[in-house]
Design goal:
14% of the residues lie in helices and 52% in strands. By secondary structure, the protein is mainly β. It has 2 domains: 3-72, no CATH class; 91-182, Nuclear Transport Factor 2, Chain: A. The strands form 2 sheets. Strands 1, 2, 3, 4 and 5 form a 5-stranded antiparallel beta sheet that branches. A 4-stranded antiparallel beta sheet has the order 6-7-8-9, covered by helices on one side. The chain is elongated.
Length: 191
């Protein structure tokens, strides 16, 4: 199934179609005509209009075929993802923010109570284990607010893998608080 709208169900269907050609075949001194069927696969969208009556459904109109759209984006349509160290935070601030980020992702995988105290927008994820902070940049947004872009290594039953995040960190008294999580790198500019 490709889509289910209010009154239409659309399926992607592949079927074999045949094209019949006639060829002449010699049998001894005689020539006869023989049909040859050449099969090929066709893929189409098959849409079925329907209506609901009570708890039952019925086909409300003739189903129809339409072409399958190309779902592959071209290179020009795809935004690039970048990693830039435009933060230029001081070494001491970066050290503090790295320490906070490690604590944040440790709490993300182990302690929901601590996680609630230091962030908004992440839910406890005990299915994984935080392994390391691999890369991090922090861009100052004025005052005690920073835009963080980080890459971390996580471990689960399938092994280790990296994940990218961007989020906002704001200093609150002697600690930090994180919000606005996105599970992606920022979009960059095409070269």
């Amino acid at each position: 199934m490709m889509s289910l709208a209010d009154n239409e169900a659309t399926y992607k269907v592949t079927y074999s179609a045949g094209e019949v050609t006639t060829k002449e075949v010699k049998k001894g001194k005689d020539t006869t005509k023989q049909n040859v069927v050449k099969y090929h696969d066709e893929t189409t969208l098959f849409t079925i209009p329907y209506q609901k009556v009570g708890s039952a459904y019925y086909i409300s109109d003739e189903p129809y075929f339409s072409s399958v759209p190309d779902l592959q984006a071209t290179e020009n349509q795809v935004p690039t993802k970048t990693w830039s160290d435009s933060g230029k935070t001081s070494d001491s601030v970066k050290k503090d923010l790295d320490k906070f980020t490690k604590s944040l992702f440790t709490a993300y995988t182990t302690d929901g109570d601590t996680l609630k105290l230091i962030s908004k927008g992440l839910s406890l994820n005990k299915g994984q284990e935080f392994k390391s902070l691999d890369q991090a940049t922090y861009e100052s947004k004025g005052g005690d607010k920073y835009h963080a872009v980080v890459q971390i290594t996580m471990k689960n039953a399938l092994g280790t893998h990296v994940e990218n995040y961007q989020f906002t960190i704001e200093k609150q008294k002697q600690s930090y608080f994180a919000t606005d999580f996105k599970h992606t790198l920022p979009e960059g500019k095409k070269e």
